[in-house]
Amino acid sequence: MPMIRALWQKRKSIVFTWLISYSAVLFVPIAISLVIYSQASHALKGEIHRANDALLKQMRYTIDNQVDLMKRLDMEITWNDKLQNLMYSNKPAKEAPFNAYQLVKEFRLYKTSYASIDEFYVVWDQGKAVLRPGNIRDLQTAFRTLHDTGGLSYEAWSAAVHGKEANRFAVLPHLGAGTSDTSIAYITRLPNDLSGRPTGSIVVMADASRFRQAIEGISNFSEGLLLILNKDNEILLSSRQDTPELKPFLDGGHVRLGDARIGDSELFYMPSAVSDLKYAIIVPSAVYWKKAEYVRSFASISILLSLVGAGMLTWFFTRRHYTPIHELMQSLTDRNAPPEKEDGNELRFIQRAILNARSEKERIAMQLQKHQHTLRSNMIHRLLKGRLETHVPYEEAFRSFHMSLPSNEFAVLLFVLENEESLHAKLPGIDLNEQAKLVPFIIGNVVEELALQHQHAGYVAEVDDMQACLVCLKPDASDARGEMQAIASDAQTFLRRYDMELTISVSGIHSSWAGIAAAYQEAVDAMEYKMVLGKQGIINYEDIRVSPADSAGSGYYYPLQVEQQLINFIKTGNFEQASAYMREITDRNFGGRVMPLNLARCLLFNLVGTMVKAINELGEGGSWENEPSWMDAVIDCGTIQEMQEALQALLRDVCAFAAEKRASNASLEREGSLRELSAEVARYIEAHYADANLNVNAIGERFDLKGSYLSRLFKNQTGEGLLDCIHKTRIGQAKAMIRAKRDSINEISRLVGYNDPATFIRVFKKYEGITPGKYKEIY
């Protein structure tokens, strides 16, 4: 009683299960022997039929798994969105190669996921090409690569893959398929597009050796002939060739499945559970009874052995087998976790532990795969930013990411996409996040591949909204700078085919890890020069680097009198003259060698300031002052060319405004007389500038007008007052005398009409920004 109670308490334990199982072994042979000896012939025949069914089921299970994988892969390819887009989209034909490239790239994932599929491809009718994992080939090349073993012509293969039947199995030769050189192919004909044009076919192949290995093992066991038939009962594969037992069942090229027994052979078949295939076995009748007698003798002996040995060994092996399971349970138990309610079955406990461990492993692997690219990009980002202090040496980090380092020489390429918005507009149907990932992915792959073609190692990461490529040069690179230029040029040319307009900057060559940050900074400095040199070009740091000697002689030209003259032209409303003068200023500054970037920015901002001064001096320009967006439009320009165009457009509007204002102040006749009067006044000032008594009132008396009124008329015509004109004329003459170096400053002040040298110095500094003495030192 206590023993029965203890066993009942452990009824869910594996020990209890084993005891019941081992005990059942003692009674099963007895039951089987009674059935065998009571119904010998009928039972043996039934057992043999069931054995044949089991063999066929085993064969069906093995081959159906392979066929199911082929059909599953066929289904995934059929409903692949990129394939649907390629076959049935109404997009422009020029996008088809890109879509095909994306599709064959995704086929690589299928190749990895379906390792037992030896080959698959898509016949693209409209492109007259075959799409394989990783490449695109024309039909002739694909046939020679895959099927040209001599057993099938190109025309026969073309007819097979372009047949009208939707789904079918066929035997195709396959190069590289081992000794058989054949494969069983599952061919799916895709529906025509909306215009009724043929689209293509999907071909999934598994080498015949995979099927033959499965059926040969079963055939050797049963001593029979195993066949794989298609839906028309044609033989796709057999375990042996040219066997005599097959001929009675043949009707032309088809196997008669209705006749179960012909002569000394019997045929059994079973349909596939996943396809229209059939599996058949032909077994000689003599094999039946030979095996039946062997089974009878073996059954009697096994019963006796079971009765003698089973009872003795049951308890011994139960104890022995349970010991490692108990130890395994102890090792799998988490001692720190809260205790769980046990159900008493050790195998279920082990299964749960293994499933939990596998789930955790898969989760960690997926997390690592997701973050590997981010970690690699972060490492490159740190290198470019000069952060060399790390817990793991960079050499070891590069090895962990499978990144090679051919040498200790580095360079950096920077890529800026100039037409990002318009490019995204050409990719409809793609999520914005996917678009943001796709473009950098394409640029990165292209640049890294081009670097590899030049035998360098290139690694791309996104840094500061730019794509940065860290290039580790090959050893002993003789023309490293030229090769960097070639990589940039090839990348720009290739990506322009896909409407990507890039500006690329190239750094110098640096050694060691510390030099990478310097190379990156050089590339950034070079990229900033696109403001001067324009977008969509290649800017090499060595070309724009300014030495101290060059910087000392860099020509910045925009003196005060030039600015005042430009303002005067603007105020007179003469757009042609003002525009030509502004172009003369910019050409003088940018027409020679590359101006330092800071001076270029300074000049452009000064030109914007000149426009502001001109607008303010026009007066009554409230519309300009209340809407400063024009200034933002000029300052926000990305390049000098764009800023010049914006300044010219603004200059046209301001001159039109000035001209309109002048036209509203006087009639055309008055304007002509005033211009003549202004010219006479200017000539009078030129002739009498040395007169110390020359002033506004004296000039007014000369022309029988009030001095202040004459000065106002003169300013309306020329943009400057009489007093300013007198001073500028005198200062201009004084500058010429100073450059001649003949007289002293005091003498020159007297000669140009100033009795007081202090007054002359003050006026000179007002208009020229420096004193006469300083001017004399310069010239």
From TrEMBL:
Signal peptide from the UniProt entry: none
PROSITE patterns: HTH_ARAC_FAMILY_1 (PS00041), HTH_ARAC_FAMILY_2 (PS01124)
HTH araC/xylS-type domain mapped to chain residues: 679-778
Keyword line: DNA-binding, Membrane, Transcription, Transcription regulation, Transmembrane, Transmembrane helix
Record-annotated membrane-spanning stretches: 15-37, 298-317
Pfam families per the UniProt record, alphabetical: GGDEF_2, HTH_18
Domain of life: Bacteria
GO molecular function, one term: sequence-specific DNA binding
InterPro entries xrefs: CdaR_GGDEF (IPR041522), Homeodomain-like_sf (IPR009057), HTH_AraC (IPR018060), HTH_AraC-typ_CS (IPR018062), Tscrpt_reg_AraC-type_HTH (IPR020449)
Protein name per UniProt: Helix-turn-helix domain-containing protein
